């Protein structure tokens, strides 16, 4: 982003119309609930996600998927898939994996299955490149497939070393053969040419969560959820900023002993607004924050738990509206300044 654009964005942040102050923090490290409660289970990976379609969004609940338009009307349901999901660049198709080592392509408008294949791995991440390759990972290897779901190659190493827990893969705007690969245990993020297997660039990172990317804003970001900040990087993996927020560490119940450190913790999955000015970020208690993507320690709003509680994943419709997946398969749409949901739905498993 140029200096002028960054200055303009910061100026707009300063003169921003006021947001509701409808949340009062109790000053506690954890969110305390009265008694034990079984939340909808999501693994450390963060199993529930949202993907943008041409006419709405697709919610993946690991074992099933439901697509809706932006008014909340159901378009179709896909059973048995949703472990990982990616949408084709033209948004006409969806590729998804499941817990039975299957992968399939669906029509994004109707949900009709186009093709299906059996793999040898549990695929936990997927991307669909502009030159029509589907790339997946099981955290240890990278699989390159064509749109018939034939495996073209398997990449097992980076610069002669085995991958050390791949926690995220993303596309790259500069070259359609480039992908960004984050290794959480390997403590590095790399730009990889998946055709030649050449490592274009690598940056060392001590500890991190997952990797996200906005082609529109030419920016990567990585949540460091235990330290409550988001690291933003440019497409050359150079650091842009560290954006801090005051997040809680998880959810406990009032009957727990003081020396009982167990808790229910959400996976932090921040999403950048289309104009690149704001992040929605869910902390480890599922509390949702709206923070600046440019200014240090600038939090516009923490959403009251009566409006947004236990947020698993979010997606922006535009710069003022978003949809969130909540506990018990709830789906809500909210205006960033709203005090009531625009709609509340429930995706039936």
From TrEMBL:
This is WD40 repeat domain-containing protein. The lineage of its organism: Bacteria, Pseudomonadati, Bacteroidota, Flavobacteriia, Flavobacteriales. It comes from the Bacteria.
